[in-house]
Amino acid sequence: xxxxxxxxxxxxxxxxxxxxxxxxxxxxxxxxxxxxxxxxxxxxxxxxxxxxxxxxxxxxxxxxxxxxxxxxxxxxxxxxxxxxxxxxxxxxxxxxxxxxxxxxxxxxxxxxxxxxxxxxxxxxxxxxxxxxxxxxxxxxxxxxxxxxxxxxxxxxxxxxxxxxxxxxxxxxxxxxxxxxxxxxxxxxxxxxxxxxxxxxxxxxxxxxxxxxxxxxxxxxxxxxxxxxxxxx
Length: 232
What we know:
Elements: H1 10-37, H2 43-63, H3 69-81, H4 85-89, H5 94-118, H6 125-150, H7 154-157, H8 164-193, H9 195-204, H10 206-230
Helix pairs in contact: 1-2, 1-3, 1-10, 2-3, 2-5, 2-8, 3-5, 5-6, 6-8, 9-10
């Protein structure tokens, strides 16, 4: 399961699909839990923590040897789980559009910056941390630009006008980047330590990954429902 291996056959492609669904649904679960337990917390802390954990999940996948192209796909699955809130909370899909945009940008930008880290050798975790930092910072720049045009909420609109981007980077972008620089290398190391075990389970019992994905999505629904019941 390495970028430099021979082209993947149909069976391996199905295994990678299982990986994508599992890691993406876990990231979505983190977002759902944060939404129900940290909504009243300082917004940048919540967003930065979710971003860091998401980057850590992507780091785990990269450390386990999964291709870089999965990073954006995992982020897309995580973003898709956010739409579960639409029927439960009876809100407009546009209410979740910016959150989905942010998560998708994180995975896409990380996939773009990872080659820079890999050129410095697999053991230099500082380069991976720097790549994650740049990826999160770049995604915050794009998010500010695109989010204000997609479905801006009141919070995002507060960063419009003169010096709006600078204020957004200080309050959101830099915290996202700092958390990512810590969590991504940690996830990478954990993935590398367990790469052999992950590979064996994936080859022998790929259905377990799909089952775990279903459980994670069910927990997302539960967390969102709890948020509604508790009125948070």
